[in-house]
Amino acid sequence: MKRINQSEPLIEKEEKRAVMEYLNSGGWLTEYRRTQEFERMIANQVGSKYASAVTNGTLSLAVALLVIGLERDAEVIVPDYTMISSANSIILAGAKPVLVDISRDDLCLDLDKTEAAITSKTKAIMYVSINGRCSKMEDLLTLVRRHNLLLIEDASQSFGSKYKGKSLGTFGVLGCFSFSPPKIVTTGQGGAVVTDDEELYHKILLMKDYGRPKSGVDYYETVGYNFKFTDLQAVIGIEQMKKIGWRIHRKKEMFKIYHDLLQGTPQIEFVETDLNDCTPWFIDILVEKGREKLISFLNTVGIDSRPFYPAIHTQPPYASAKGDFENSEYISKRGLWLPSSLSLPDEDMRFVCQKIKEFFKN
Ligand SMILES: *Cc1c(COP(=O)(O)O)cnc(C)c1O
Hints:
The chain is α/β, with parallel strands linked by helices. It contains 12 helices and 13 strands.
């Protein structure tokens, strides 16, 4: 039986050819000119002045937090529903994550609860635009200004997504992206930090290269680490960036196909999605009842699906977190990701939807 993966990377002939050409060119694999080219493409795509590629998305968040300079007991607000990386990166940067509930309409931070969680130690908000959605950017920016906080965007799931025409990742002082295999552009591992702030950009360059201002010269201005990217990955990223228009278009088209085919299935709900701005990275649905049964039924007919992330406060490292997490609990128990690969043909999407309908009929 043929299996349909929930997610798999799309690597085409252009990427393969570029890797071979690069290897034949005698490149040193590590970060150099190809990475710079990839970074320029990222900055152009999102409309930021600077982009710096780093090892992965988790580290892009950690680097962002490290360069803004957090005191030991600084608190950073982060949603209780997101990939665990968002919260863990705050700990990696030496600060304290404060989990806050999400709102049901866009699955992003609930701004009233966010405001209530602000203390004298709160330094930043890490806003995660889940699946390319964000419906309250203006209110968020007002709140951030009112409390004199820094906004760091975890836009890992939002490459290609916008708010009123402006790219997500460019509203915060720093915006972070991931290029892991399920993401819309993937280099295996990879991430990027974007900013318009020259000073922060220079701090990132030092931070990712052991603290030295010049590669190959052993003078270290600050304590830095090694969060660098590689040219070997950059050549793959560059080829995908050349096709980013199609990749974005296809994700939107896929969402629309699923959305239209699953109309009239009352057991399933879609999160409101404006495809002008939003490029859904995964096809996400909410299943009111019987999600686990649906997952196993789909599995028996060769379809992989994946439940949403658990609410972070339910995981062992965050068990002591306190608060009202009503919506993140509600969403993580009902959310389901359907097959979402860019390589998925329309007929497979029709098959998935047909099987979902079949399940709910019985
Ligand atoms: C993918 C993702 C990350 C982590 O990125 P990695 O590249 O896997 O480290 C962080 N936050 C969110 C919201 C993500 O979806």
